[in-house]
Design goal:
single chain, mainly beta, 6-stranded antiparallel beta sheet, 8 strands, 0% helix
Length: 113
């Protein structure tokens, strides 16, 4: 099984200490967002004739909204699919990477616990 375009094969993150603190102002009852590990990723998607490669790599831990993933069963194996463009955060370290934030973003230091 191999994903195409910017699709990814994901598995639920198994690190029990992993959590993201969501502010009380967010209605969590409508959202089951979670952390996944990227198992496989396609080559990217075409935009105006240019291949846009995914920013994620195999082994990355990513935060995605629940509505952005699909679950299916193929030959007895449960598979979780998502698109690289729907990744909200890449969680491969403790510090937020703000180097590429650009001028449009406020640079905020944060720690994920």
């Amino acid at each position: 099984m191999r994903p195409v375009a910017d699709y990814m094969i994901l598995e639920m993150d198994k690190k029990p200490e992993s959590k993201i603190v969501i502010p009380d102002t967010v209605d969590q009852s409508k959202d089951e967002s979670t952390i996944f590990t990227v198992v496989a990723v396609g080559p990217g998607h075409m935009e105006s004739g240019i291949l846009i490669e995914p920013e994620v790599e195999i082994g990355d831990r990513v935060f995605m909204m629940a509505f952005a993933v699909s679950k299916l069963e193929y030959k007895g194996k449960k598979v979780i699919l998502g698109r690289a463009r729907d990744v909200v955060l890449i969680l491969n370290g403790e510090e937020v990477n703000t180097e590429d934030a650009g001028d449009r973003s406020k640079i905020v230091k944060a720690r994920f616990t």
